[in-house]
Known about the structure:
Layout: E1 9-13, H1 20-31, E2 36-41, H2 48-57, E3 62-65, H3 76-87, E4 91-95, E5 102-104, H4 108-125, E6 137-140, H5 141-150, H6 157-168, E7 173-177, E8 179-181, H7 192-208
Parallel strand pairs: 1-2, 4-7, 5-8
Antiparallel strand pairs: 3-6, 4-6
Helix pairs in contact: 4-7, 6-7
Subcellular location: Endoplasmic reticulum
EC number: 2.4.1.83
Pfam families: Glycos_transf_2 (PF00535)
Amino acid sequence: xxxxxxxxxxxxxxxxxxxxxxxxxxxxxxxxxxxxxxxxxxxxxxxxxxxxxxxxxxxxxxxxxxxxxxxxxxxxxxxxxxxxxxxxxxxxxxxxxxxxxxxxxxxxxxxxxxxxxxxxxxxxxxxxxxxxxxxxxxxxxxxxxxxxxxxxxxxxxxxxxxxxxxxxxxxxxxxxxxxxxxxxxxxxxxxxxxxxxxxxxxxxxxxxx
Length: 209
């Protein structure tokens, strides 16, 4: 109400034991089912599967994808909306590596992995965006639907492919600096297998775009 944005929240739980479902039920009681939409347990890795489920129930013209563990502050909704209106962008991507953006709470290893992944992507793909692995994004709904038809990647490389395909299709991408704060509870799913999968996906995109 105070942001001036007419919005709905769609919560897609990946079956994690962190109490997401219970919190969603409490939010639904407070704000009503017209604002909070709970949709099943989809046992998935952070990839397009969640986007597909979310799009089925989204009624607005724009869709914002964000982490539900408070790593992305809710004020970013207002920032991304303002940026979209400013340039009439098809996509607004949060960036941790531009302007006053940053990362808080990561150890050196995690920072090096993220920086290294973005550096390799910049060198090989020239995507025209500074943060390819972040998951805070605003999309026009019809643009997201078109991108989902083109993207084939799974896991962490999926976020990168979305921007690369968007550039291929001529969609406009704006960036807004964000502060990413590591989760207080739970652990990241990032491991050796995901890193290998990311590198394979990066090389595939390099060979096919």
